Every structure is written in C-alpha cells, then in structure tokens.
Amino acid sequence: MDREDNRKWFTHTADLVIEHVDRPDGRVQIYFLSSMADSKIVYNELMPKLRLLCLDEAGIEHVEKQLGTAGGNRIFRETDAISRLLSGDIYIHVEGAEYGVTVPSEDTVGRSVQSAEIETVVLGPQLAFVEEIQVNLCILRKYLPSSLLFHERLLVGELIPTEVSILYLDGIADPENVNTIRQRLQDIRAESDMDAGILAQYLADNEMSIFPTLQLTERPDRAVQGLRHGQIVVIAQGSPFVILGPTTFLRFFQSPDDYYLRWNLASFNRVMRIIAMFISLLLTPIYVATLTFHYEMIPADLLLSLAQSRSRVPFPPLWEAIFMELIIELLREAGARLPTKVGQTIGIVGGIVIGQATVQAGFTSNILIIIVALGALSSFIAPSYMISSTIRVIRFPMILLSGLLGAVGIVAGFSFLASHLLRQKSLGRPYMYPVFPVRFSDWKNSLIRAPLSLLPRRLMFFTPKQKMRFDPERGRQKEDID
User: Fold this and answer.
1) What are the GO BP annotations of this UniProt entry (predicted)?
2) Long-range contacts of 179-186 (CB under 8 A, 24+ apart)
3) What is the pLDDT of residues 66-121, one digit of tens each?
4) Model confidence over 29-58: pLDDT tens digits?
5) DSSP code of residue 217
6) How high does pLDDT run on average in the chain?
7) SS3 101
8) By three-state DSSP, how is residue 79 classified?
C-alpha cells in the first residue's frame, strides 16, 4: 500500500497516522488509526526497534526478524491491509517489498468482560460475552479447551462486511446443520448491520413467525452446553450475544442454572416455567370470556365479589382487560428505557399509584388488577427474553378472541398456536421436539431434568454423531475408596 493508495482509501480519515521511521521520505512507513490502535506500541516499541536497522538497506525480511513477527502477519493485498487497519492493527510497509507486515494492537476500545445483565445468573459462572469477537472466542476456548472445537470464519454483508465465526464440536455436531448455517450465511445479501439479532432473523426458517427459532444468549456456559449437545454457535463482530441453533421450543424455558441445581429442584423450576407460560397466556382471556359469556361457570360466592368489584366499571370486560394490559406494557417499556435506578422506581411506584387510581376512578376492578399482575409476573419467569416478549404479544389477540367468541375463541386461538408451532422448524428440524414427533426418552432432559447419571445420551434432536455422553453403567456406580 503506497502513499497514493492511502490517499485513495482514506481521503476523509483524519485519524490515519503515517510515521516514517528514518526520515520524512524514508522507505519504511508505519500506518495506524489513532482511534483504534494503541499509539504507545508504535512510539515506545516499534519505532525504537526499527531504528536499530540500517533502514536504507533493510528489506521486509529484516523488519520481520527485528520485530519477531510470524509469517501469518504478512499482507499481500491492499484490501487486506485496510481491513486490518480498520480492526485496530498496525501496518508496516517497506517500499519495493512484495508484502507488508501487521502488528496487533492490544489496546483497542471495547467493553471489559462483565457478568450477564439480561440472562441473570443465580448459580454458575459470572461471565458474559462482549462486543469483541476475539474476546468471545477466547472465552469459549477457555470454557471448552478441546482440539475438537472447530472454528470457521466468514465475512457477511456486501457494502460493509461483518466478521462472523461458526463454532461446533467436530464428531458431535451434525455436518448437515453446519452446512445449513454456512450456506444461509453465505446467501445473505444485506449491505451491513450484521448484529447477532439480525443474523438470527436471516437464518430463521420462517422469518414471518413471531416465535424465535434460534436462541440468542449472552452466557458462555449456555453456549458451551449447546456445543456439547451438538448445537452450532454463531458469533458476530460487534454483538454481545451469540446464536445457538438448531433449537426447540422447550429449550427457551430451560436455563443453564438447571444443571447446577439438584435434579428435583431443577425439574420443579422447569415445570413452573411451563405452567407460568399458560397462566400468562390464558388467565386474562379466561377472565374476559367468563364475565362476557359464561357467568354460569362462576361460583355464587365469587360471583358476588365480582359483581361488587365491577359495579362502578363502565366498560365491558374486554376493553377493561385491554386497557390494563396496555398500562402494564407501557410501564414495562418505560422501565426498560429509563436508567436502571429510575426505571425500577417507575415500575414499582407507577404500578401501585396507577393501580389504585384506576380502581378508585372506576375504570377497572380489583380482581382484574390481580389477574393482570399475575399474568405479567408469569411472563417474566421464562429465562429467555425473546420467548417472554412473544408470550406478552400473543396475549392481546387471545384476549380479543375471548371477548368476541368466549371459550370458543380461546380454543380457536390456542388451536391455531398449536398448529403453527407444530409446523415450525429450526434449521430444518422439528421445533416442537420431543413433544412432536414424540420421543419419550428425551422428555427427561426437556420437560424435566432427570438426575445426571440418567442422562447418558445426547438429545436426538441434534442428530449428534456421538450419541453417548458417557457409559451409563459407569455413571450409576457409587464406589468408595477404603
């Protein structure tokens, strides 16, 4: 990359720095972006070492020897040199040489490794992914120090390519799943903005579905567990989340913490999350349908309390429920967008004040506030933010159907959801596995979490090449050392 080239490629780049080691028009130049690279490396390390050479006669081989750089740092094309500069590396060029040399800079701007904020950790490692792809790769390598962990690098996007990494365990992950992800990434024709959330939408089998068919996680332990079962991990530069696929609907209700707890506690938590999903989805619609069409189903004592609670409410149950659900969603969205301390205050104080005010003003009943609050709490129990958001959105059409058609509307809406889920696929695999197709042997690590000694097999959903995780007979042995 000569001087004319850098003027061509960096016409409006004020942070491009070009240093001549020997004299203003010397043969050896150092290129770096002051906003990306650490200038201390250039002035305190590289330039003193290069000044020890006889630069008028030095070739690129002498520069490599003096700096101790390996052959992998050689750059033969201008576009590669520009890409490395934009990544924060330092480029050294000798006029007349066939190639240049890059030196990595260790002080690029980025966020340090912290604990997970979205997927909170009760037990387990207190680390989360960051926006730097190399740091995320380092974290996974430390969690999974195995030569079987294969890593493929792709550039996705046309105008501004984004570096994307595909990771999987060779001999465990199904090659068909790997090929599917690789092909879909290569087929993306978008210009830029290749965040993990955007990539997941491009990789999804059905982009029009409201249900997520690929997992997003910021927890390395979840990614490592997925790799060990046969899933594929996709990491995108600039995103603190990684993609896991293929996946099933039930895996969105599982947490890595389930494996750190005793099996009976973990199984209880998983069942509670499934129950909470039905409560969040059906509790308010059942209230609306019962008060609108099915008074005869309400016990007499409870009916009297409902009549007294609704005596001042001028709206029908349908619009009353939608009004309260919208208030809950507004409070949730406001709390998420405001600073942390202010957001918590808004959520607590706003809920109490608005709830009491709406009851006193006669806009709603006490019983509906209890029901809506239970539904909102139940939607937050799911470990995955993606699936909890989906459930909250689906609740609104279910309320409308219950208000228009009663119990028939609830059954119709639930049947539509069931048929829709049964048709979904994740990288070509059935989304509702192991419920459909039915495979009872995998229920003990899906609906519940059986004791670890009873889980010798990997889930057949991932079609792993190595089906056994350990010898089941040895796993059941309890030998004491005398």
Assistant:
1) spore germination
2) 180/427, 180/428, 181/232, 181/234, 181/245, 181/427, 182/152, 182/154, 185/154, 185/156, 185/234, 186/154, 186/156
3) 887 655 578 888 888 888 888 788 898 888 888 888 888 765 556 777 888 888 88
4) 888 888 778 888 888 888 888 888 776 677
5) E
6) 85
7) strand
8) helix
Sign of dihedral through CA atoms 168, 169, 175, 176?
negative
* Encoded amino acid at 269, one letter: N
Number of residues assigned to the chain? 482
Residue type, 295: Y
Looking at residue 247, its pLDDT comes to 95
Tell me, what DSSP letter sits at residue 232?
E
Q: Where are the domains of the chain?
A: 3-103, 133-249, 263-423
Q: How many CB atoms lie within 10 A of CB 478?
A: 5
Q: Cα separation of 307 and 295, whole Å?
A: 11
Element (H, E) at 17: strand 16-20
Among the listed residues 49, 70, 53, the one whose alpha carbon sits nearest the alpha carbon of residue 62: 53
Q: Is cis: bond before 437, omega within 30 of 0?
A: yes
Q: What is the DSSP string of 358-424?
A: HHHHTSS-HHHHHHHHHHHHHHT-SS-HHHHHHHHHHHHHHHHHHHHHTHHHHHHHHHHHHHHHHH-
Burial of 155 (0-12, 13-18, 19+ CB in 10 A): middle
Query: pLDDT-based confidence at 465, cuts 50/70/90?
Result: confident
Planar angle of CA 156, 185, 134, nearest 5 degrees: 55
Model confidence, pTM: 0.83
Q: What is the dihedral of CA 292, 293, 294, 298, to 10 degrees?
A: 10
The Cα–Cα gap between 466 and 461 comes to 13
Q: Is the pLDDT of residue 411 over 90?
A: yes
Distance of CA 354 to CAs 309, 336, 369, Å? 17, 18, 10
- Residue 164, classed as helix, strand or coil, is strand
